[in-house]
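Exercise 3.2. Students should predict the tertiary structure of the chain below and write it as structure tokens, then compare their answer with the key that follows.

Predict this chain's 3D structure.
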Amino acid sequence: MTSIATATSPTAKKALSGLTLRYLVLSGLIVIASLGFSFANENFYSLVNIGILLRSIAVLFLVSMGMTFVMLTGGIDLSVGSNVAFAGGVGVITLTTTGSAPLGFVAVIIAGMAIGTINGIFIGRLKLSAFMVTLATFALARGLALVIYDATSINVSDPTFLWLGGTSWGNMPVVIPFVACVFVALSILLYRTPFGRNVYAAGANFNTAFVLGRRPERSVVWIYALSGALAGLSAIVTVGRVSSGQPWSGLYLEFDAITAVILGGTSLFGGRGRLLGTILGVLLYGIIINGLVLTGTNPYLQSLIKGMILLGVVLLDSWTQRGKTA
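Answer key:
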């Protein structure tokens, strides 16, 4: 084990320096985008708009951190957006049936983890394609959400259930410190525990990780369950933001999360990336979307720009990976 660690050390340092450079570039792009949109609209730096920006990207932060774990294994989770709608529906129904917000919270998390665990078992244990499995649960979870809601929204008035997504301290949404705490907890899990090392090992080489006794198939199940749990947390925030459960909530959220994660430097091929890059990727992506809305850009053009960003970062990641394997 010691010889392996010694042999991979230079590669790890090289990857780290590459990621550090990427973070510097992302930070620069965040500054440039912020300045550009502030010149285009004087309200960009207003406290009200900053509050709107932070609240709007809080859900994307949570889902993207889960997506980072998944993509570090070389996988993908297309079901997270639908899972947000499904888990939110289960929580809202539990809340309205029992009148208990704590039970509603538990139901949301369990529902989200259930979809994630199904993904993990099919992908980790049965070795099926992550794309096809999560595409199936993408449709499954959205269908369940439509059935639960009967395709209509359900209003929620319980202040405890709405607190996380709907409360602000001045212009600071309380969900932002919460997201920061989740980031710290997940960083400890990823960088300071054997589980985190297993995540990177499964993404770097699944078969080698298996031979070394790291049990990557079990790690994959837990990683997708974690992604589902974070989708459940996102559902709580989403319901709190709009004071209702919506069957179409989380639509295209998986698209935004994948874009932000790749933008932050996590490789499509697994084994490379960090949560800090994801945070920067979400910030840059959120600023661009907020700026486009604030400047009155045509919604159809916004979709075009989103697609171009995703295509660009995928091409960049593929090119970078080709350079490493050449």
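Discussion points: Residues 1-9 have pLDDT under 50 and may be disordered. Strands lie at 154-155, 168-169, 172-173, 244-245.
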